[in-house]
Amino acid sequence: MANGVYLDFERPIVELEEKIEEMETLAEERGIDVSTELSTLQAKLARLKEDIFSHLTPIQRVQLARHPRRPYPLDFVERCFTDWLELHGDRAYADDHAMIGGMARFDGQPVIVIGQQKGRDTKENLRRNFGMPHPEGYRKALRLMKTAEKFGHPVIALIDTPGAYPGIGAEERGQAEAIARNLREMAALEIPTISVVTGEGASGGALGIGVTDRILILENAFYSVISPEGCAAILWKDGEKRELAARAMKITAEDLRRLGVVDEIVPEPLGGAHTDYPATARAIEDAIRRHLGEVSVWGPDERIRRRREKYRAMGAWKGPDSAPAAAAVPAGGADGRA
What is the pLDDT of residues 204-217, one digit of tens each? Predict the structure, then answer.
């Protein structure tokens, strides 16, 4: 498994990988041929991976979305964009390192990229505030989106946060107002906007950069009004019931596509995005390219109209036995996949 980090449900895979590695080491030390046995074990490993990762529960997908080795927005910036120049500060209070943003090129076209960034170790996580933006982070993001609108550049938002920071200081500086303003302003942007949920997409902290023309989501990411643990604590007064909450909340990529909340599911390599950064980045790049091409042909008035209709349709039901109106034909094909 990636860098020796694995999840509980991956234990059978790890044990078989260790057995294969031991056999290879023994064969090398003793100079014996175990190719037949290795071939059998490797075939068994492939079947085991396919079986486990094709039957993941909602909470297991949440675990993959939070995997410590999962690629973060800056990993995708490095692989999907060129000429990245990070910009800092909200010009009012401070520079929030949990919210990244800057100028880049996508297929040679100037774009503005914003995203929520976590850390890889304790020191960086403290600097990034564990990917939970403060109000100044949302104000920085809005400043950059307005800059993009001024110059006619598309905005690409990469969502990965457990939520906006709920601390006293953040509340004192207007956390709720900053997010609410972003929702209003993003709904009225005249430029093409694409968001990609790459990991955790929790609460208004995610939505604060997610009101876009198209919403894409990685296969094992999730998007929700609250975390499964938070939901379980509120409804059952027991955070341990997170698995029950995850099922009830319909937060997986497939649930969201079926409900019309997201426009396309971006496939991940078998085992999760953390097992192959380049392949995951290529899949995201292809999806952004396709959707950006589609929304870029709209005029400003049509774009705003479509965007507002898109969000107003979410949660609108025709009847108790019918699908939500927004889920009629998802973008990217009949099944919502690339």
Answer: 999 999 999 999 99
Query: Which long-range contacts does 14-19 make (Cβ < 8 Å, 24+ apart)?
Result: 16/41, 16/44, 16/45, 16/48, 17/45
Give me 137's structure tokens.
Answer: 């982070």
Bridge partners, residue 102, by sequence: 86, 113
- Identify whether the C-beta of residue 263 lies closer than 8 Å to the C-beta of residue 331: yes
Instruction: Assign 3-state DSSP to the chain and report helix, strand, coil percentages, each to 5.
Output: 50, 15, 30
Angle between helices 73-80 and 277-295 (to 10 degrees): 70
Give the per-residue pLDDT at 31: 80
Superfamily for domain range 62-327: 2-enoyl-CoA Hydratase; Chain A, domain 1 (3.90.226.10)
Burial of 228 (C-beta count, 10 Å sphere; 0-12/13-18/19+): buried
Q: Is 41 helix (H, G, I), strand (E, B) or coil?
A: helix
Q: Which of 98, 96, 130 is nearest to 116 (CA)?
A: 98
- The answer, yes or no, to whether residue 70 has pLDDT greater than 80, is yes
Three-state secondary-structure class, residue 113: strand
* CB-based contacts of 273, cutoff 8 Å, min separation 6: 64, 67, 70, 71, 198, 218, 220, 280
Indicate whether this model's pTM tops 0.85: yes
The larger pLDDT score, comparing residue 19 to residue 29, is at 19
Indicate the domain borders of the chain: 2-55, 62-327
How do residues 111-122 score in pLDDT, each as one tens digit? 999 999 999 999
Q: Which range among 37-41, 109-113, 236-240, 328-332 shows the weakest confidence by mean pLDDT?
A: 328-332
